[in-house]
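Thread title: Can someone regenerate the structure for this chain?

I was given the following input by a collaborator and told the matching structure tokens would be attached. They weren't. Posting the sequence so someone can regenerate them.
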Amino acid sequence: MSKPLLPPRGIFASSGLLFDSSLPAAVKETVLQLMALTWNSPQHCTPVLTVSQLANLTGKTPRTVRGHLQALLGEQIILERQMVDGGRFMLTLADWLFQNAQS
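Best answer:
Regenerated them for you:
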């Protein structure tokens, strides 16, 4: 039996992300959704997905998903986009997203 895509309880998000004024709210929501998809990966990798699958999971259009992914690659939130085959990919997210900001 495969593990579910969504976390059973929730996720921890860095306050650095939550209070980052350079990211639009809609893009932050996508980051949080991507973070939830990495719940089962110590390396913070999503499962292998297509843009259509990610659009269905997030409730966004494929065009919006593509735009958000491009923005997140530019912000170095998505560290790597590994293409698999047939338009499928896996994303690796930055470690700082999952860490508590300490002073």
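Residues 30 and 88 are 18 Å apart (CA to CA).
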